[in-house]
Structure formats: structure tokens, C-alpha cells
Amino acid sequence: MSLDHIQQLNHSLTEFYDKMSSWEQSVVKETGYSLAQTHTIEVLGCHGALRMKELAEKLAITTGTLTVQVDKLVNAGLIERCDHPDDRRAIVVKLTSDGEAIHRQHNQLHVDLMKDLTSDLSAEQVQVLLTCMAKINREF
């Protein structure tokens, strides 16, 4: 790939990231929860109950930072701490039914956005996009 193509791709991905971040901020703003709290709910909604270390890794934050988020979400009744089913020493966090409802609502907003963004693409173009995104995400 030429340097020019790399620069164009970099510009396009940066522009998309900025637009997606702005959209996410505006959507989350209406919920009364922070973006960090919403991302925590999103990860738990996608992956189910996780140990704190696993959740911190998926969010790319420290366990100390995560503890603050978890405390706020526990106090809000959106997640709960539970004993790990296989390890008596470990604690996992999982969504409550209210947390699951918020995850479903937020996820539906993402689904609706993707429908809008891809409405002019063919099924083949969507498949190519999925393949490319999967390859790019594996590099992270």
C-alpha cells in the first residue's frame, strides 16, 4: 500500500473515530451516566459476568480506576458483585436486570446507527467491511 493510501486511510479512520465519539457522547449524555460507566455496562452486557481484572483489561483501564466505576454502578443498582462460581477467593461483577435493560437500549442505538450508516452498502460491501474490521481489530 502506498504512503498516500496509508495517509488517506489514517484520515478516514480518524474522522470516523471523531464522529463516532461525538455521537457516543451525545447519546450517553442523555442517560445521566458517564461514558466510562456506559462502556462498563456495554462490556458486561456483551461478555457476561467477569472478574475485575478481566473487565479492566477489556476496558483498557487499571483495576483501581475500574473499582471507582464499579462502586458507582453498584450504588446505582446497575451491576452487582458476586462470588465466582468456581473460585471462592474471586469476585465477579455482572449486570443487574436494570443494567441489562440499559445495555439493551444502548446496544439498540448502536444497531440503529449501523443500519443507517450501511444502508447504501450492498451485502457484499458490508461483508468486506466486516472482514477488514475484524483483521484490523485483531492487530490491537
Task: Summarize the structure in words.
- The structure is a single chain.
- By secondary structure, the chain is mainly α.
- It has one domain (31-139): Orthogonal Bundle (Arc Repressor Mutant, subunit A), CATH 1.10.10.10.
- Helices cover 71% and strands 9% of the residues.
- It has a three-stranded antiparallel beta sheet.
- Strand 2 and strand 3 (91-95) form a beta hairpin.
- Helix 3 (52-59) crosses helix 4 (63-75).
- The longest helix has 27 residues, at 3-29.
- It is globular.
- The two termini are 20 Å apart.
- The mean pLDDT is 93.
What's the helix and strand layout?
Blueprint: H1 3-29, H2 35-47, E1 50-51, H3 52-59, H4 63-75, E2 79-83, E3 91-95, H5 97-118, H6 123-139
Antiparallel strand pairs: 1-3, 2-3
Helix pairs in contact: 2-5, 3-4
Can you give me a brief rundown of this structure?
By secondary structure, the chain is mostly helical. The chain has helices spanning 3-29, 35-47, 52-59, 63-75, 97-118, 123-139; strands at residues 50-51, 79-83, 91-95.
| N-to-C series of helices and strands | HHEHHEEHH
- CA-based shape: globular
Any idea of the CATH class?
Mainly Alpha
- How many helices in DSSP terms? 6
Query: Segments where pLDDT lies below 50 for 5+ residues?
Result: none
> What percentage of amino acids are in beta strands?
5-15%
* Largest sheet entry: 3 strands, antiparallel
Q: Mind telling me which CATH architecture this is?
A: Orthogonal Bundle
User: What percent of residues adopt helix (DSSP H or I)?
Assistant: over 70%
Mean pLDDT: 93
In the sheet with the most strands, the strands line up as 1-3-2
Strand count = 3
The number of domains is: 1
The helix/strand class is mainly alpha
The CATH superfamily is known as Winged helix-like DNA-binding domain superfamily/Winged helix DNA-binding domain
CATH topology: Arc Repressor Mutant, subunit A
Cα-based radius of gyration, to the nearest Å? 18 Å
What distance lies between the first and last C-alpha atoms, to the nearest angstrom? Answer: 20 Å
